[in-house]
Amino acid sequence: MSDVVSHKCPNCDGPLLFDPESQSFHCEYCLSVFKDTDIKENTEPSHIEEVAKETFNLYACPSCGAEVVTDETTAATYCYYCHNPVVLKDRVSGEFLPNAILPFKVSEKEAKEKFLQWANKKKFIPRDFFSKKQIEKMTGVYFPYWNVDAELFGDVKAKGTKIDVWRIDETEYTRTRRYDIRRKGNVTFKSLLKTALSKNVKQNMIESVQPFNVDDCQAFDSRFLSGFQAEKRDLEFNDIKESVNQELDQYTESLLVNDISGYGMIDSSRCQTQLLNQSNQYYLLPLWIVTYKGHDSEEPYYFAMNGVSGKTSGILPVNKTKLIGTSAIIGAVVSGIVLLGGYLLF
Fold first, then answer.
1. pLDDT tens across 82-126, in order?
2. How confident is the model at residue 282, as a pLDDT?
3. What pairs with residue 168 in β-bridges?
4. Keywords assigned by UniProt (predicted)?
5. Domain spans in the chain, listed from the N-terminal domain onward
6. pTM reported for the whole predicted model
7. Of the candidates 309, 291, 332, the residue with the CA atom closest to the CA atom of residue 135
8. What is the torsional sign of CA 23, 75, 78, 290?
């Protein structure tokens, strides 16, 4: 019984890869193309009970037998020797089985083209950030998220102020009126997405490429992981529950306060909330990622793209030499104009 599975072509036994553009599976060897309904997964019962006792970082590739080395959260990757895509079954089954997956729709070619368009607009980044070697590092990754639906009751009390000013002849009059304001009601939240991977908590790239249309999610099938990398969650919902509830409270208060209108100033708002219903599900969502390790920073720079909508975001390195040189040239030009203007005027 194997903890590793490589989805095979029914015709030639080559590896199957998922194609985001056609939403189908294709074989790079015999060029066969299959829809989801054309192939059936040869499933084997996984022994998740054994996996729960020990964390494995070494797996045997089912195609060539080489050892596949992973960190503790990798769920899908490539064999470094034969380059076949492999899925680590124990990390996407049992208690780690995702409720749903949102398949890639942006292809690797399209992602690389958009990355170049985005990078070329930035004038002061090092050229090796978008070099051919760097572009080849672009990776499609399924990241783990908690998808939260909730309903809250909120009750906001605030003070509102209206100020009227008018003049009669030479006299100016001001009238100030203070009001007690109250807004209350039920607020429903759908698909609040929070990262389920601890190493992404400090990075903004996961949130910055949202939203994801989770209505397009499909029942989890490990075949969608073929050709991509994937991470499994290492944050349980209880680990983030407190921060999620605080965020829901803040959103509830903000929505109720924003419903107040007709006052010049609103202050001293106080809100009481009550959580009525809450549910959470574990999703795998797609991103294209490029990372870059600069010489002047311990933290890596990154480019991230939503694997469905193509929305991009990133934190870029700065070519300081080019920036300083450009600033010096601009400064010299401005100084020259000022001196010339002074000479002509006087």
1. 667 777 776 777 888 899 999 999 998 998 888 888 777 666 566
2. 94
3. 171
4. Membrane, Transmembrane, Transmembrane helix
5. 143-315
6. 0.70
7. 291
8. positive
